[in-house]
């Protein structure tokens, strides 16, 4: 999603992308973008100025070990930027895992899938060796594909549950909104277009007017009208509580993923000792 967004915005070209994975056949979509595809993570690091770490949290140790085994140290290492999108994995774990990179500069980042259409929401926290010009470079990258903002690391798990997972919640609500229209006789394609535009318009209204969502909701709910009757049904179904619970549980799961990754890395370190 990140690469698609940057390509669509003209920030990069396909020829500037190096990507690696265990199976070249699974990288065909990257080849179609014009990217150089490899099976060696170390080769990607050696040939890149900005490295995105996009593996599952539990394979971080394996990924770092592969890079360490083939990486050729260079004076350029201190100028490279590493960007981790691993859910729940904290900066101290990332810095320890890649301590073999001289002067490691790493960011912990959480974008969402809407970056692919330049409407993403990305938060980031810089590592201990990152300087202001590095922050500006990262901000330029992600602000090209949406909103980007630096946050405290302790807030990232909750923000991940809200904005990283959020598109899935919205799509679920959107699907229900569409199905509701279809049930009442609206053709599905028409219902899809109208429902999506309704969500888009509502979101833009919040951002542009800066009004509290409750105020905007009340502006739609006329006394004794259809909207307040619909809202009553949502409240009967514990709609808001369900959404809040979803974010709470997604936050807990993000924290669990980070802890599992740390435990795996710790057990490997102990085994090597």
Task: Furnish the topology, listing elements before pairings.
Layout: H1 2-8, E1 18-20, H2 28-33, E2 36-38, H3 41-46, E3 50-53, H4 60-70, E4 81-84, H5 91-97, E5 106-110, E6 120-126, H6 132-143, E7 146-150, H7 156-164, H8 166-183, H9 188-209, H10 213-220, H11 226-236, H12 239-272
Parallel strand pairs: 1-2, 3-4, 4-5, 6-7
Antiparallel strand pairs: 5-6
Helix pairs in contact: 7-12, 8-9
Please, how many helices? 12
Count of distinct structural domains: 2
User: What is the name of the CATH class of the largest domain?
Assistant: Alpha Beta
Helix percent band:
55-70%
Please tell me what the overall shape is: elongated
What is the chain-wise order of helices and strands?
HEHEHEHEHEEHEHHHHHH
What structural class results from the helix and strand content? alpha/beta
N- and C-termini, Cα separation: 39 Å
Number of strands: 7
Beta fraction of the residues?
A: 5-15%
For the sheet with most strands, the description reads:
5 strands, mixed
Assign the CATH superfamily of the largest domain: NAD(P)-binding Rossmann-like Domain
Tell me which CATH architecture of the largest domain applies here: 3-Layer(aba) Sandwich
Rg calculated over all Cα atoms = 22 Å
Q: Uncertain runs with pLDDT below 50, 5 residues or more?
A: none
Mean pLDDT: 93
CATH third-level topology of the largest domain:
Rossmann fold
Family: Belongs to the pyrroline-5-carboxylate reductase family.
Pfam family, one: P5CR_dimer
Organism: Tabanus bromius
Enzyme class: oxidoreductase
């Amino acid at each position: 999603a990140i690469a698609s967004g940057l390509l669509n915005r003209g920030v990069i070209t396909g020829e500037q992308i190096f990507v690696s994975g265990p199976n070249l056949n699974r990288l065909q979509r990257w080849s179609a973008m014009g990217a150089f595809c490899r099976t060696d993570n170390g080769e990607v690091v050696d040939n890149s100025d900005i490295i995105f770490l996009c593996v599952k949290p539990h394979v971080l140790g394996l990924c770092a070990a592969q890079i360490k085994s083939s990486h050729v140290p260079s004076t350029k290492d201190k100028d490279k930027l590493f960007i981790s999108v691993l859910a729940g994995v904290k900066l101290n774990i990332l810095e320890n895992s890649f301590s073999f990179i001289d002067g490691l500069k790493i960011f912990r980042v959480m974008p969402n899938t809407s970056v692919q259409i330049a409407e993403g929401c990305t938060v980031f926290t810089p590592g201990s060796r990152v300087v202001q010009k590095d922050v500006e470079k990262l901000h330029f990258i992600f602000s090209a594909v949406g909103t980007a903002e630096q946050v405290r690391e302790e807030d990232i798990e909750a923000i991940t549950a809200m904005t990283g997972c959020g598109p899935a919640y919205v799509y679920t609500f959107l699907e229900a909104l569409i199905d509701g229209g279809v049930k009442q006789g609206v053709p599905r394609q028409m219902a899809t277009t109208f429902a999506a535009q309704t969500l888009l318009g509502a979101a833009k209204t919040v951002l542009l007017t800066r009004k509290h969502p409750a105020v905007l909701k009340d502006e739609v709910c006329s006394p004794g009208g259809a909207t307040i009757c619909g809202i009553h049904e949502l409240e009967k179904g514990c709609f808001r509580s369900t959404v809040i619970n979803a974010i709470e549980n997604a936050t807990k799961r993000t924290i669990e993923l980070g802890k599992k990754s740390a435990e795996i890395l710790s057990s490997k370190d102990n085994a090597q000792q």
